[in-house]
Amino acid sequence: MVEGIRFNRVLLKLSGEALMGEASYGIDPKILQSLSTQIKDVRALGVEVAIVVGGGNIFRGIAASAEGMDRAQADYIGMLATVMNSLALQEALERNGVFTRVMSAIDMQAVAEPYIRRRAMRHLEKGRVVIFAAGTGNPYFTTDTTAALRALEIGAECIMKATKVDGIYDADPKTHPDAVKFDELTYIDVLNRGLQVMDSTAISLCMDNALPILVFNMETEGNIERALSGVRVGTIVRGDDR
Question: What pTM was computed for the model?
Fold first, then answer.
């Protein structure tokens, strides 16, 4: 255990939309730069970092399926979008001096390593940031579920879900000024209230394995480091036996 740090190994979950910044599509280089700097600061603390990034800024499989596209085909396209985001994030991190590996659930050796659990853990032990791309490699599973699955596989102690708001509210704070923010919730609270934290499969997986989820605002510089240092940031989701 690194002195003064809550978690030694974490999985950072980024939505594809988070990479857009104020744009309506694509990737904002300023967001990538900010993220890479924050991740570099966390690595300097001795914390091992893995990342799962979505692809919604480029393509959303569920949305395409709703418009008539075959769901499995749409999800595969979405997986490729996550690879694009992962490579962009890798480039930003390595430009910032952070050694990084992209591991893909879909075989594409020209741009990424295949996902092998033991190899991923070895990269983390060597101080490299590991970015898991292409979801689980299977349709019908979101990158939220990927985050929960990979976090458990590599022995992460917490999922840190980066959002554009400072935690979990009982309503959307952007449209409901009187929305109430929660400091702590249980997995059952999240499921029963239908709170849009992560999908129900991901929440259930975390609940079954007692893996905490910290939801925080990624747009506030230094929030990742603050959270790891024990400062109350965002909303923590965990079991009743905390």
Answer: 0.93
